[in-house]
Amino acid sequence: MIDLWLAIAHHLVVFTLVAILAIQIALVRPGITAEEVIRLRRLDGFYGSLAGLILFIGILRVTFGARGQEFYSENPVFWMKMAAFALVGLISIQPTVKIYSWWQQAKGGGFFSAPEDEIARVRQFLKAEAIVFVTIPAFAAAAARGVGL
To answer: What is the pTM of this model?
Structure first.
């Protein structure tokens, strides 16, 4: 029964993270306001926290889930999923740094305007995160079915 609850929690947190990524992509656009940057910074912090929670719940699933550690540790498709998750994390560093920089400028309450080239670059990174993220459920479904064993 613990496996069921861990799976439910894992999926709900993943879906929430995907929603936040979609909101970030929608918010980062030319003309972003100081108020939106402040909201974006909060969302980005929540995004990072959720990524940590996904990892924590995933470790619990591997450790206490129905399949057991051996099933996952010996499956190369599972490790491809982990590599994709790590890659999403690495890609997310640049947007986080830039969002933090914008937030530092915007929180003073004065005029804020993010340069369009920075906005375009952050959007590229966010879209890259989304593209790599799409591979994670594919790897997860394959690994769960024993593909690679």
So the answer is: 0.91
